[in-house]
Write the structure tokens for this entry.
Amino acid sequence: MPAKKNAKHACDKKKTAKETKDSDEDSCFLCLAPCTARCSYCNLVNYCSEEHFRLHRQDEYCFPYKSGRIPEKGRVLFATRDIKPLELVLIDPGTVVGPNYKSEPVCLQCLRIVETGFKCPTCQFPMCGQNCVEGVRHQQECEILSQDLERTKLTSQNIPSHGYAHVTPLRMLLLMESSGEKWLRTNQLMDHLEEKDVHPDEWSWYESHIVDFLRKDLKLASRFSNEDIKHAIGLLNVNAVCLQFPKMIGCPSTEVGKGCYPIFAIMSHHCICNARYFVDPNTFNMYVRARVNIQAGEELTVQYLSALNGTHRRRKKIREEWYFDCTCKRCSDPTECGTYISALKCINCQVGSMLPSNSLDYSSNWTCVKCHSEIECDKVECIVDYIENELNQITNSSDFQKYQDFIKEYSGIILHPNHFLLTTARRNLMQYLCYSPPDINKSDQQDLKFRVDLCKSFYDVLHKIDPGWSELGMFGQRELHFSRLSLLQRDFALGSVPFAEFSVKSRDSIQILKKIDEQKKIITFKKE
């Protein structure tokens, strides 16, 4: 079951300080409650309580954001001052963190994968050890979970099971029961229960595996109503983010759970966003940093989906999961910032590229930019689905060398060379080449040139559809300049590149690699 976030309509126009005065000067920077206490350090925001002040200022640093309202979106976040790339925008400690509805054995306290076989003596759930058993997060629920040990047996399997389905909703319900400030902030978020009939099979599963289990099997009917439990599920489905570790440049990550972060959830979606989040696996605190230069008064935005998804698929997913239609700059442009990342080669003239006639219409016909022939949207989806199935088979087979054949077979023949399936294949191949042992027989000039061309093709597309800093962008740049430097050194050793050219080009790549290393240090969390 995928974790989802709070839905906001994307708006392409940047908001200036004058345009965002819907947030009253005499209201709390976070909850917008009337107040007069002003931060004496930055003199930029008001706060209504000490709890909210601590969310504004930590370690002698004032976070440069405040909430406000935009009529077509509702509550959003704005920058209170100019913010530089990778500068810290906010820290959200979150309110509820827990395992996914279906999960492999993970520790209920720290969410790390459990392979030791150790279990909590009381509830029998897999745990890292006694320290985690005594952790605050687990102690609140342990006795309740121990009321039914039959389902807990499912967690002993080394495969994903629904033995964890009720755990995170239970944590949300316990937060609800506390009625504290954390619950008040969480309860301001949307649950979209009015849309639950859109996914009847999904909600039928929730009814049997979560609602009924909590009320009947765990004997909580007197504490929580059906509506309470559905509200908790809705809050998680709409607002929680997936927790994946390690979230580092180019490195494969493992999804271990989900977390609800009410401050972060206020931020709107934009397919070309200006901020990015990271979660510390030790504390589960969320850190949001700027991706690009952000002006004072500008709205703070994040992405809900990977930038490597094409517009047609991305918009459908946003509509299905977050119940709104994105109309941002990228979604409104059939070429997607000039990349043609969703385009197919024309079946008729075999020269032009086919794009949706109206990229904001889910069922729009696709038209060739050369001969103007048309094809129905359903046929485009069938072609893409068929080719994607082949790509998935390569990924599942771990025969990564087949990516080269895949790219050669479809690039410029059926798919535009920049198509998101080909861009994804390039990304996967780059990761394979990065993390696989070096093959001394393939370190010749031709192979190095292939790597440079591969990385350049990938990064040329990525930086247009996803400008600014990101882990994937950092990975793409690192691989591109490392490969360029290796090729340059090989060419210089062979005498095919003069010293002056070698000196200038190598210095440029070395400087970029050093910058990437500095960026990596900024976002790396210390291990506990």
In short: Residues 1-23, 247-251 have pLDDT under 50 and may be disordered. The chain has 17 helices and 16 strands.
